[in-house]
Amino acid sequence: MPTNAAGRVVPTNVNGTPQRPYAGVNNDHPQGRTAAAPIRSAADYPMNGDKRVPDLETALRQCGLSDGMTISTHHHLRDGDRVALWALQAAAKMGVHDLMWFPSASFPAHAPVIELMESGNVHHIEGSMNGPLGDYCTQGRMRGLGVLRSHGGRWQAIQDGEVHIDIAVIAAPTADQFGNANGSHGPSACGSLGFALADSMYADRVIVVTDNQVEFPCVPWQIQGNNVDYVVPVDSIGDPAKIVSGTTQITRSPDRLLIAQYVARFVRDAGIMRPGFSFQAGAGGIALAFVDYLRRYMKQSGVRARFVRGGSTRYLVELLNEGLTDYILDGQTFDLDAVRSIANDPRHIPTSPFTSYNYHGKGFFNSLVDVVVLGATEVDVNFNANVVTHSDGRLLHGIGGWQNCLFAGCTVLAVPSFRDRIPVIVDQVTTLTGPGELIDVVATERGIAINPRRKDLLDAVQGSSLPIRPIQAIQRDVEKICGGKPQKPRLTEKPVAVVKWVDGTVLDTVWQVRT
Amino acid sequence: MVTAANINTLTFEAGHSGPGVRSDCRVAFMPRSAGGIDIELQSKVAAYYGDSILTQAREVLADLGVEHARVMIEDAGALSFVISARIEAAVRRAGLGEGRRSLPEPVALPAASPRDRLRRSRLYLPGSEPKYFINAALHAPDTIILDLEDAVHPAEKDAARVLVRNALRAVDFGNCERMVRINQLPLGLADLDEVVPESPDLILLPKTEHPEQVTEVEQRIARVQSRCGIKRDIWLLPILETALGIENAWAIATASPHNVALTIGLEDYTADLGVAKTAVGTESLYARTRLVNAARAAGLQANDSVYGDVGDLEGLAEWARNARALGFEGMGCVHPLQIAVIHEAFAPAPWEIERALRIVAAFEDAQARGLGVVSLGSKMIDAPVVQRALKLVQRAERMGMVTPEMRAAAVAQKPAPKTASEGGEG
């Protein structure tokens, strides 16, 4: 296997598809045309627009489900989702084998897919894997290689034809009989359905599953019925209690609050917080606390943002309602306040990975965001970061939009300096998920490290009372506390998954964990 | 107690495990008469530090003179000093390791704490909860209290004592003063035996009611220090928590030259009175003002109680501002979020600093010119006003609110406007 531009050993063929090794940021420029859905004829669809079928199994059969196909699902319902598992279980019941599951993300609720992999119905997963699925993969038990992509990378892979979706199954909180659908209304409302948009546009066949049928037209529609083959009415598409992310509360940890405060002060003191600026913060406890602190500073200074980027929560909604931002550009909707807002407020706008993240487009708006605050499991002294595996090599979670966000004007990783005695700042990351040249600031409770490449930021905070320190100094402190450098992960030489960069090249390999 | 008859059957435990436990470990120690040392480790961080934990456990057992035992360690990411403490506590519970200690690698001992240091905030940390120790200093309280008293269950006192000792030795508490709240006497004397060799800056004496209690603690500290060859001062802070303690405030305050402050414990005090503790503190006004008076009369700092509602930062700010107005110089806190609020409340306002700087400048000008009278423009300044201004400026300097440049600028400024309160005090 060759070594790529990041110095990582990567395979050249993944699940039978030739691969391009990572060539460096902005260095890979493939040519050609994007994929497209096959031509269909309206004559083959009901002229009264009623595409309903009684159940998912019928829909899958009429879609021509067969061995080796790719079934895609999306994750807006998060751990409350039932539809993805139903689809795969229905396929298994129909005796179909060697499916590739292509979720936009997976959750613990999807753990039973392991049984479907054991029985041969599902061959492998290309999408984030955590918990039991992550363990299954990193133990080397999945037959194919896992492929981890960012949200933007997933769109890129679909439109570039790297992944061909045979059947897309879309869980829709509201839909009409023609297949127009949105996520912002209905008993299982989850906000935006942006992650399912590419699937609906490029898949050969599209099934919409809904527990809230409305008469045509379903407005607003984010999924267009013109792309939809079948509509399956069901009693419930998920557990609403689990649809809302569990991470939408401000952290109560004093240490994490300190990190959040440092980041907000940094954004203020470095001059990033200026009239018309923009920012993005996820739904983790530190990120939400950052929003809360920044909001205070914005109020104190009378600064208003042009837009904020979500993962939206009530904290962003409050900014909107207080007049501290003109717009929320929403990629995911994380709590019920945000769901209500996106349903009712025209300034709260659903987006898709195409507009926000896709690297193979004519630009993407995340590069217009002034500052983004992200997490990470590890970051090394060269600011390379890992977000997908534990330091012991086990898959922890998906990339989400993390890689795509690195293109913001200033990328801040807000991380504790160690977790349970495990240092976060390491000599070399176990799995490379983001190149250090795109990571500008690492904020910990023991100080803020600014990437030496960003002399402008270093100059901007000269004279600030913030604890700006070299990343190596923070690492030394932590290793002293934790009792030295941790042992190296116990890995074999068998690849179990790859991490794609936003341009579709292979950034790193996830190796089997020795048990 | 281990005997020849039961040595292979008993298990002694220390520490904590289970859901929600982090940065701690549970050690099960099973002494035996032969067979050497067997250690079984279940660790959340086994992939990272498993080998070093096993090595450390063997070293600790060797330090304690244990040659034959089975040991099970359930580890939730405990740091080295915690693992040592838990093993030592379990071994001691077996009645072994008598007269021995297994001391972790020390961090550099910080400079000794001056008796009049700034003590606006003192943060209580439960002495049995190591997860709070490591990062406490990052929140910059003036002082950190490792609490062996109320925060520790009676059955955990012995283990907490060892843990606190190790923390004093191995944890870098930065610029924070390192305090230990010992238990009420006589149990607190055993606490002193364990912690004094690690030179805490200050000992808190709970429920102090008589000057003799202060003397007893002072003497015990002196004995331990003498045995260890330590000359560094350990200051004392009696906590008055009963009506009797309040009535004896002056005697307690003057009981030892090592006393640096007095403080009050309002939960116990109001319980002693049989009244409810209120948000405004009317029921404790007498006690608090009496304590302030006794402390100031003895040349000590007066420190207020804690404000227990960690969710009510506005209420805390109001309480703290009121405490400052009564003459307290700081108060306790039970959560790091309270620290900044307390520091702000105990800080002089900018206008107070500005006026005090002008008065001090006028005073220094008068001194330099050999004048006995201090005047600010056409106005004479009384001596107590000068004294108060000097104190305020010194305190503000220690808080980083007054710089030499600000003092120089004050000299060049015009006189402060006349206010009603500047004359007639004396």
Total strand count of chain A, please? 26
Question: How much helix, percentage-wise, in residues of chain A?
Answer: 10-25%
How are the strands ordered across the major sheet of chain B? 5-6-7-8-9-10-11-12
Overall 3D shape of chain B = elongated
Overall description:
The complex is a heterodimer of chains A (515) and B (426). Chain A is an alpha/beta fold. The longest helix of chain A is centred in the middle third of the chain and has 17 residues, at 285-301. With 426 residues, chain B is of the alpha/beta class. Helices cover 40% and strands 17% of the residues of chain B. Chain B has 14 helices and 14 strands. The longest helix of chain B is centred in the C-terminal third of the chain and has 19 residues, at 350-368. Residues 417-426 of chain B have low confidence and may be disordered.
Give me some keywords for this one:
heterodimer; A: 515 residues; alpha/beta; 8-stranded mixed β-sheet; 6-stranded parallel β-sheet; 15 helices; 25% helix; globular; B: 426 residues; 8-stranded parallel beta barrel; 4-stranded mixed β-sheet; 40% helix; disordered C terminus
What secondary-structure arrangement, pairings included, does this model have?
The complex is a heterodimer of chains A (515) and B (426).
Chain A: E1 13-14, E2 17-18, H1 56-62, E3 70-73, H2 83-93, E4 99-103, H3 113-118, E5 122-125, H4 131-138, E6 146-148, H5 151-159, E7 167-172, E8 174-175, E9 181-182, H6 197-202, E10 205-210, E11 230-233, H7 240-243, H8 254-269, E12 278-281, H9 285-301, E13 305-312, H10 314-321, E14 325-333, H11 336-344, E15 348-350, H12 353-356, E16 371-374, E17 378-380, E18 385-386, H13 402-405, E19 410-414, E20 418-419, E21 422-423, E22 425-426, E23 441-444, E24 447-450, H14 455-460, H15 471-482, E25 491-500, E26 506-513
Parallel strand pairs in A: 3-4, 3-7, 4-5, 6-25, 7-10, 10-11, 12-13, 12-16, 13-14, 14-15, 16-19, 17-22, 19-23
Antiparallel strand pairs in A: 1-2, 8-9, 17-18, 20-21, 23-24, 25-26
Chain B: E1 12-15, E2 25-31, E3 37-43, H1 46-63, E4 69-75, H2 80-93, E5 121-126, E6 143-147, H3 157-170, E7 177-181, H4 187-195, E8 202-205, H5 211-228, E9 235-240, H6 243-247, H7 249-253, E10 261-264, H8 266-273, H9 285-297, E11 301-306, H10 313-326, E12 330-333, H11 337-345, H12 350-368, E13 374-376, E14 379-381, H13 383-398, H14 404-412
Parallel strand pairs in B: 3-4, 5-6, 5-12, 6-7, 7-8, 8-9, 9-10, 10-11, 11-12
Antiparallel strand pairs in B: 1-2, 2-4, 13-14
Helix pairs in contact in B: 1-2, 2-3, 4-5, 10-11, 12-13, 12-14
